[in-house]
Amino acid sequence: QVKLVESGGGSVQTGGSLTLSCAASGYTDSDFCMAWFRQTPGKEREGVAAVDNRGIVHYADSVRGRFTISKDNTNNTLYLQMNSAKFEDTAMYYCAADLGSSWCRRWEDFGRWGQGTQVTVSS
Length: 123
Description:
This protein is mainly β and 123 residues long. Helices cover 0% and strands 50% of the residues. The protein has no helices and eleven strands. The protein has strands at 3-7, 10-13, 18-25, 33-39, 46-51, 57-59, 67-72, 77-82, 91-98, 112-113, 117-122. Strands 2, 4, 5, 6, 9, 10 and 11 form a seven-stranded mixed beta sheet that branches. It has a four-stranded antiparallel beta sheet with strand order 1-3-8-7, with no helix packed on it. Strand 7 (67-72) and strand 8 form a beta hairpin. The relative contact order is 0.32.
């Protein structure tokens, strides 16, 4: 069973930076898509960024140019570098995996989730 464990959440000031990490385990073949999602109370979970094993990345319009997703297969860790943080980036951030494809498909195709890590942006 693939297990995903997020870390690195916390408080950050507007305009500041924060890096989230997701330690992945329980698999031998890393050829699948991984992503970061976020969710605020009362809203649906939304895809933020995704990356496949070839390094092809996808970003939501709301974070493009500010966030960077990366994957280190040597230590099975997914990262999300958050720069120029905004109030609206405040959310619970989840790491996710789509084990059914080598490339990133739709946001709806992700079926493995971590427990989440909270990010709060304040002035």
